[in-house]
Fold this protein.
Amino acid sequence: MAQRQTYGRQRPLVVEKEQAVVEGVELPGHWNRMFGSRVIDDYDTSTLEAVTALPGGESLGWCYQCAKCVGVCPVDIVGDYGPRKIHRDTLRGVSLLDSPALWPCGTCMNCLRVCPKAVDMTRIMPAAREAAIDQGRPIPPELQKVFEATDRYGNPLGENPRRRADWARGGGGMWLDGFTRDHVRMRLSDRRVLEVAETGAGTLAICCPYEVSRFEDAVKATGQEGRLDVRDIAELIDAAMRPS
């Protein structure tokens, strides 16, 4: 008896005899089940190619499912997420442009730092989101409100931009030194990078892996790229412990 079963996008051939005798041993039902050969390129790759065809989305096709990204993804800590899982879903026929998985990524670059294939979600996700919006794909209602407020008021909260000092009070400390007129034009990370550069140091050690990408961006913004290397302290310890 031959039957077809669904597995992902393929339907492998399952061969099962009601009764079989092998070397004098009777093997009924599922005990003699065999599977026909499967061709791995039978997968429908159109949903993956819809992303890799976008400018900036090419590297999603480079993923080979090593799963290094999942362990460092902050979104995966609170849910089932990660670049590997997004790539796997596109191979299963899930359209990223229509998937809820399109929106949780914070483009923090943690995955890019550990990816041996340089799959760059900081380019893939913005490209896919832009395509989804341009094509009129479904957008979460809460994000729709953010887009409308940003377009109308210049900020995602929908607050009066002329009263920014009032409604922003107490927030944004990670970006600004303070809330006075003298400081609002420079991010805290930029200021700290300039302070380190003035000491003549060549390495800026960061004690939180989630802050590395922010200070790498500050290095570029302040013109220190090539002069100042941003490293997580764990990387420095690992390098120091390696045999010379």
Confidence is low (pLDDT under 50) at residues 1-8, 170-183.
